[in-house]
Amino acid sequence: MSPDARTNSDLDTAWTVRWIRRSAEVLAAERAALNTLDRDIGDGDHGENMDRGFQAVLPKLDGLADDATPSTVLKLLATTLISTVGGAAGPLYGTAFLKAAGATAAVGTLDGMALVALLTAARDGIVLRGKAGAGDKTMIDAWSPAVDAAQAAQSAGGSAPAVLTAAADAAARGAQDTEPLVARKGRASYLGERAIGHRDPGAQSTALLLRAAVDATRVTE
Ligand code: ADP
Ligand code: MG
């Protein structure tokens, strides 16, 4: 058994499960920081909401059937988020992962093209549900650059992990780039110019989730 992490370019059901477990770990660690971002321009519960939803899915992952696919796992996450996370983020992320499950149905292993389809469907689901556009200072400002970067990496022949890395890097930049914006959707839109200088919490949680997806490609055996 080597302590070195190796990159597994087959993004299968086990990867999907690792993605959720890693997300739960990161969201628990960042819970207070996400609450603080939401306290600045919202009601202070975004970290709590995300942590609650991802903790709720963990025990269910242990009960997955042997023939579970990435799509089955994403659907389980989606339904859990919809039923346990309140506020704006629950239905938005729930819809995102439900659409992602639909876009990857019946595929056992996700290649770069399938990942682009997954990310695009997630982003489009959020737009359908929340009607936010680019620059409205929402999680879309992390998702949309992530989708564009994933598409570009896939077109350039990047592997599935390379596609995910491009997406995560772009989401992190997108989250940072929400700081100077005025919000046009969600609670932060009530603040007008007072939202300037604060990072959008949902864009930040999206960046964390996509970074967790990259972390999940590194398997230690
Ligand atoms: P609530 O605002 O109900 O307290 P959360 O704090 O959990 O819910 O989530 C807030 C985040 O939800 C925001 O930071 C923003 O990224 C996202 N959000 C809110 N409204 C929308 C929308 N219409 N479209 C996309 N994202 C949105
Ligand atoms: Mg909130």
From TrEMBL:
Q: Name one GO cellular component term.
A: cytosol
- The question of whether Acetylation is a record keyword is answered with no
- Write down the Gene3D superfamilies for this protein, in alphabetical order: 1.25.40.340
Which SMART domains has this protein been placed in?
Dak2
Keyword Transferase appears in the UniProt entry? yes
GO MF terms here are: glycerone kinase activity
Keywords in UniProt for this one? Kinase, Transferase
Q: Which InterPro entries match?
A: DhaK_L_YcgS, DhaL_dom, DhaL_dom_sf, Dihydroxyacetone_Kinase
Pfam families the record matches: Dak2
Protein's UniProt name: Dihydroxyacetone kinase subunit L
Which organism's genome codes for this protein?
A: Cryobacterium levicorallinum
- Upper taxonomic lineage: Bacteria, Bacillati, Actinomycetota, Actinomycetes, Micrococcales
